[in-house]
């Protein structure tokens, strides 16, 4: 593979060991992850984070209510990611996919998927 085709984006998922999953307002289930996002390109990336694998997942990144994260050129960033599922999901560990999507300066898609687990307490 040529160097130009190498994905400039890498995401490592770090599970928050303190709390696997907890119930929050409205019976929703919340899981917290930390993402180590690595941008090896020479331009900043504006990433939209998402998750699927359990119906109705909602994602928040960083300290705000947004699912968008900016990572400077040739930098890495540790970002807290909160994922909530609606009430009624069966207890146990559910496989999910965490996605990071962006476009580079030439408007080419830059993306990566990481496997994780979403834990619903008994």
Automatic annotation (TrEMBL):
Protein name as catalogued: Cytochrome c oxidase accessory protein CcoG
Region feature (Disordered): 102-122
Record-linked Gene3D superfamilies: Immunoglobulins
Domain of life: Bacteria
Annotated InterPro entries: FixG_C, Ig-like_fold
Coiled coil: none
One Pfam family cited in the UniProt record for this chain: FixG_C
Comp. bias (Basic and acidic residues): 102-111
All copies of domain FixG C-terminal immunoglobulin-like, residue ranges: 2-121
């Amino acid at each position: 593979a040529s160097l130009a085709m190498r994905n400039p984006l890498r995401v490592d998922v770090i599970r928050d060991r303190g709390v696997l999953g907890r119930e929050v307002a409205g019976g929703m289930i919340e899981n917290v992850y930390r993402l180590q996002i690595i941008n090896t390109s020479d331009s900043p990336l504006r990433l939209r984070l998402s998750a699927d694998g359990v119906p109705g997942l909602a994602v928040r990144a960083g300290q705000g209510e947004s699912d968008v994260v900016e990572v400077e050129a040739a930098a890495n960033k540790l970002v807290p990611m909160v994922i909530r599922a609606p009430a009624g999901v069966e207890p146990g560990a559910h496989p999910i996919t965490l996605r990071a999507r962006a476009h580079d300066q030439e408007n080419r898609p830059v993306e990566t998927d990481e496997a994780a687990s979403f834990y619903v307490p008994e």
